[in-house]
Amino acid sequence: MIYLLFWSVIVSISAVFTSFYIVFIGAIHSFCNIVDNQCFDFTVLLPAIISIISNKDVDLKFCRDKKEVLCAAENNQIWPFIGALSFCFLTLAGLVYFLMCMSANYTRIRSEQRARKGEHYAMNQGTVDSNSFILTNMGK
To answer: Which interval of the chain is the signal sequence (predicted)?
Structure first.
């Protein structure tokens, strides 16, 4: 049971990261389509963030030369994210199936033990002949 909860948490975290990445890569591709003819200057938007993160001078002008690096097809890792999420779902489904099989096996073993001890319940399925398992064990 603990493994099921653990994998449920893993699937949830993977789903959140996959969603964030899909939104991020969609925004990057939209931005890459705009950058073709113009340059963007982000120095007005992020001076406080850059000064907190680093003391180095960072070039925040985004033109065509940086577009080729950022928008390259090999930087798009959406399929590995989707593959990891689908394998997490597959693993979770496998664990649920395993628990269902274990529960069914436990139920079968318990009913066989009860039948051996005479604690079984006869179901009305027609006539009972004199050699049946139920009739021979009722006197115990």
So the answer is: none
Is residue 132 assigned to a domain?
no
pLDDT tens string 66-115: 777 777 777 778 888 888 888 888 888 888 888 899 889 888 888 888 77
Distance separating alpha carbons of residues 7 and 85, to the nearest angstrom:
12
Question: How many beta carbons lie within 10 A of that of residue 106, not counting itself?
Answer: 10
At 40, which helix (H) or strand (E)?
A: strand 40-41
Domain enclosing residue 20, as ranges: 2-35+71-119
50 in a structural domain: no
Find the helix or strand (DSSP H, E) in which 62 lies.
strand 61-62
H-state helical runs in 39-77? 47-53, 64-70
Tokens of 51: 């000064």
